[in-house]
From TrEMBL:
<dbReference type="Pfam" id="PF00378">
    <property type="entry name" value="ECH_1"/>
</dbReference>
<protein>
    <submittedName>
        <fullName>Enoyl-CoA hydratase/carnithine racemase</fullName>
    </submittedName>
</protein>
<comment type="similarity">
    <text>Belongs to the enoyl-CoA hydratase/isomerase family.</text>
</comment>
<dbReference type="InterPro" id="IPR001753">
    <property type="entry name" value="Enoyl-CoA_hydra/iso"/>
</dbReference>
<dbReference type="InterPro" id="IPR014748">
    <property type="entry name" value="Enoyl-CoA_hydra_C"/>
</dbReference>
<dbReference type="GO" id="GO:0003824">
    <property type="term" value="F:catalytic activity"/>
</dbReference>
<dbReference type="InterPro" id="IPR029045">
    <property type="entry name" value="ClpP/crotonase-like_dom_sf"/>
</dbReference>
Amino acid sequence: MAIDFVTDTVNLQIDGRVATVEMNRPESLNALNFEMLKGLLAVMKEVSHLNEVDIVVLKGNGRAFSSGGDIKTMLLEANESDFSSVMDCINELVVTLYSMPKLTISAVTGAAAGLGFSLALATDYILAEKSSKLAMNFIGIGLIPDGGSHFFLQQRIGEDKAKQLIWEGKVLSADEAMQIGLIHEVAEDELSTAVESKLSKWLNSPTEAMIKTKKILADKNRPLLLKVLELEKLGQHKMRQTEDHQEGIQAFIEKRNPVFKGK
């Protein structure tokens, strides 16, 4: 029996053993503002405790998975407590997603950029449509990756390649991302068909044993992930106060190339 739950920013559909969580700000390419982050955290926590659910699919409504953190949120003259609350929510969401006792799939359409890409990396399996674009592009606005990306990128491609990817901020095609080990599968036809195929395979597998393996590895890695998230929070706070970040934001708004000065 299917169960649907809809909010302004997050949709949840439960169909048998599969929960589908949909980011729902299509007009902004599912940019992650504080409201959506809180909604995602609440939904993920709820799903984590549903014994009947074995698999969670994370997707975006409309043309994109998620274009990343909402620029309007970055422009707010937020005091330190506001910034801290946003970062704490991001960190709790990432830990919840990474360690939940479910198998998780990111179904990527369009853009998965910045924090949106970080969330995808926190899942167990990333499946992208062929025309999708993936980017760890914080550097373009003078910031560092957050959402645990330093942890996830090092795990997937190693420290040296992770640094180069972060520093370049290159936009990758789905095929390029798969070739270097950032994602697991590129859909040859419709993304929905590829997702259904993966779900069918997993639903006919011993999911309890698969989830136990996930839990063992997540428990082992949790202290390092928590340390990285805290370092990202501290580092991001410092970066937000730099001239380069202000220039990056202004250039983004004015749709021009930024002129960075290393300050």
